[in-house]
Amino acid sequence: MRTDASLAKTLQQQRSPRLFWAAALLSIATMPAQADGDPARGKVVFARCAACHSLDGKNRIGPPLNGVVGRAAGSVAGARYSSAMNDNHAVWDEQALDGYLAAPAKFLPGTTMTVSLPQARDRADLIAYLKTLQSD
Ligand code: HEC
């Protein structure tokens, strides 16, 4: 016999099958951005960031990116941040980095960084690489 809960769920799915499938497809589509990125390939992708970002804790045009995963946005002392970044106290987790790198100005209006990584695979690999780097 069915429990009330599972019956309720079935009824819900029947009432909005389109919503159900949209949610299922969305979760599949967004998964690769966060799963199994290749850090070795991400190191190569980082060449597109290296003109402005160091990995040794030193500020360049932008703040250092070692230790950025899990760090609060706009929090490196002495870095030249936009007021948009300064006022943004979000933590750079994988999802936030993915959103910012896909479209910086859309994710954070007023940011002074214009470089983006339009390919989801590039972002996943780069984030996997950044995760291997400590802030020391
Ligand atoms: C032309 C210079 C330039 C390039 C190239 C560049 N950035 Fe940036 N980046 C900046 C600047 C400037 C900021 C500060 C933005 C602000 O304050 O709005 C920034 C900020 C960031 C931040 C936020 C850091 C923090 O401490 O809050 C991340 C993450 C980031 N960049 C990642 C990247 C990645 C990854 C790449 C390579 C795909 C990249 N950037 C390429 C200039 C650059």
Structure, described:
- This protein is mainly alpha-helical and 136 residues long.
- The protein has 2 domains: 1-30, no CATH class; 37-131, Cytochrome c-like domain (Cytochrome Bc1 Complex, Chain D, domain 2), CATH 1.10.760.
- It contains 7 helices and no strands.
- It has helices at 4-15, 17-30, 39-45, 83-86, 94-102, 104-107, 120-131.
- Helix 3 (39-45) packs across helix 7 and helix 5 (94-102) crosses helix 7.
- The longest helix has 14 residues, at 17-30.
- The chain is globular, with a radius of gyration of 19 Å.
- The protein starts with a helix and ends in a 5-residue tail after the last helix.
- Heme C binds next to helix 4 and helix 5.
Topology:
Blueprint: H1 4-15, H2 17-30, H3 39-45, H4 83-86, H5 94-102, H6 104-107, H7 120-131
The protein binds heme C (HEC).
Distance between the termini: 58 Å
What is the CATH topology of the largest domain? Cytochrome Bc1 Complex, Chain D, domain 2
**Rg (C-alpha, Å):** 19 Å
Give the biggest sheet. Answer: none
- Residue share in helix: 40-55%
**Main structural class:** mainly alpha
Provide the domain count. 2
The dominant shape is globular
Which superfamily, in CATH terms, is the homologous superfamily of the largest domain?
Answer: Cytochrome c-like domain
Bound molecules: heme C
The CATH top-level class label of the largest domain: Mainly Alpha
Mean pLDDT: 86
Identify the CATH architecture of the largest domain.
Orthogonal Bundle
Low-confidence stretches: none
Relative strand content: under 5%
Series of secondary-structure elements, N-terminal to C-terminal: HHHHHHH
| Count of discrete alpha- or pi-helical segments spanning 4 or more residues | 7
Beta strands, count: 0
